[in-house]
Design a protein that fits this description.
Blueprint (H helix, E strand, L loop, with lengths): L2 E6 L7 H14 L3 E5 L2 H7 L4 E3 L27 H12 L3 E8 L1 H23 L5 H6 L4 E8 L11 E2 H22 L2 E6 L6 H9 L4 E3 L9 H14 L5 E6 L12 H12 L3 E5 L11 H20 L7 E6 L2 E6 H16 L3 H8 L3
Parallel strand pairs: 1-2, 1-4, 4-5, 5-6, 5-11, 7-9, 7-10, 8-9
Antiparallel strand pairs: 2-3, 11-12
Helix pairs in contact: 1-10, 2-3, 3-4, 4-11, 6-7, 8-9, 11-12
The chain binds adenosine-5'-diphosphate.
The site of adenosine-5'-diphosphate has 16 residues, from α4.
Length: about 375
């Protein structure tokens, strides 16, 4: 059977295990020899025990676990050709020519580069007598399918990245817990949620928790935001509301690009309204815990689709990223999505927020 390997790279997220499980089982079902690569690109470069054949039962009892059981890492060596040459050797000598990468835009960019270089990497390995002519010929095409694991929902082309829904569950549980105590004391509480360039978690959290105010990177507030915030909080208290909720995305900024932090917001509220104000920064709690049903099913569907895409690929098929569009699993050109995602980051850096939102498209 065809050699197929799956790995997780970059930041972890809930639902990655469901995706790994689905890739392994779909691969075996379709007659592939399936491998795990542990610790992302680092395991690919290092080889040895890091690349291990998977079987049907090696992915039992992982679907409910957060994070990724095969490990994830950042890998400086893979950024250099020398590292990628080692990785190519480790794959060819195991007969692996199909890769499923689960990661963010960095990991997908690396995979695309690897594929573009594949031919020349094999030529170099052959010239150095590391591989045989037969191996050079037999494994001359590398196929790539990607899927995006990220709690931020920050990737262009998919309605939901794997892990976002679970992170929202974690956040909402935390807010509900805090609300019950804040309610007893007439407090204002400020919650900082993750999302460096993407306010998705913050916006959805604000809607689902009846927050009074939300700060996100894509929509910096008008210059008089301090007055607007205080007016709103005061008005809510006057109308009998016992607590106020303010959500701040970790990447929130003002129109000049200066950060709007939870600390800053607290200072504004305390200085102007003297309200009893507390900050909660959820941090890695958002990444933790078990994946939601949605993320488990999303991981399963994406994983199966990724394997099918690889099995249907012809030599000139471009790498794809498997995405959710509406409620459909679809295959999109990997590099186009990566380029759009990077263009969004650039538009944000240029303070062109309308363009950023427009480029990001749905969700
Ligand atoms: P994410 O995939 O979550 O965006 P990173 O950007 O840290 O996370 O990328 C994860 C890993 O992917 C890096 O440590 C590196 O090994 C590999 N990688 C990222 N960008 C490139 C690149 N341009 N070329 C080669 N490898 C890359």
């Amino acid at each position: 059977g065809k050699g197929l390997a799956v790995f997780t790279s970059g930041g972890d997220s809930q639902g990655m295990n469901a995706a790994v499980r689905s890739v392994v089982r779909m691969g075996i079902y379709l007659g592939c020899k399936v491998y795990f690569i542990r610790e992302g690109y680092q395991g690919m470069v290092d080889g040895g025990d890091n690349i291990e054949e998977a079987n049907w039962s090696s992915v039992s009892s992982i679907i409910h676990k957060g994070g990724t059981i095969i490990g994830s890492a950042r890998c400086m060596e893979f950024i250099k050709r020398e590292g990628r040459l080692k990785a190519a050797f480790n794959l060819v000598t195991r007969g692996i020519t199909n890769l499923v990468v689960i990661g963010g835009d960095g990991s997908l960019t690396g995979a695309n580069l690897f594929r573009e270089e594949w031919s020349s990497l094999l030529d170099e390995l052959l010239a150095n007598n590391k591989i045989t002519k037969d191996q050079r010929e037999k494994y001359k095409h590398l196929h790539i399918a990607g899927m995006v694991g990220s709690i931020d929902n920050d990737f262009c082309g998919t309605d939901m990245t794997i892990g976002t829904d679970s992170a929202l569950h974690r956040i909402i549980e935390a807010i509900d817990a805090i609300v019950s105590t804040a309610y007893s004391h007439q407090r204002t509480f400020i919650m900082e949620v993750m999302g460096r360039h993407c306010g998705y978690l913050a916006v959805v959290t604000a809607l689902a928790s009846e927050a009074d105010f939300v700060f996100i990177p894509e929509a910096p507030p008008s210059i008089d935001w301090r007055d607007k915030l205080c007016d709103k909080l005061e008005q809510e208290r006057k109308s009998g509301q016992r607590l106020n909720i303010i959500i701040v995305a970790e990447g929130a900024i003002d129109r000049e690009g200066k950060p709007i932090t939870a600390e800053l917001v607290k200072k504004v509220v305390v200085d102007n309204l003297q309200q009893d104000t507390r900050i909660t920064v959820l941090g890695h709690v958002q990444r933790g815990g078990s994946p939601s049903a949605f993320d488990r099913i999303l991981g399963c569907r994406m994983g199966a689709e990724a394997v099918m895409a690889l099995m249907e690929a012809s030599p000139d098929t471009e790498p794809c990223v498997v995405s959710l569009d509406g409620n459909q699993a679809v295959r999109l050109p990997l590099m186009e999505c990566v380029r759009r995602t990077k263009a969004v980051a650039q538009a944000m850096a240029d303070k062109n927020w309308d363009l950023a939102v427009q480029l990001r498209g749905r969700s």
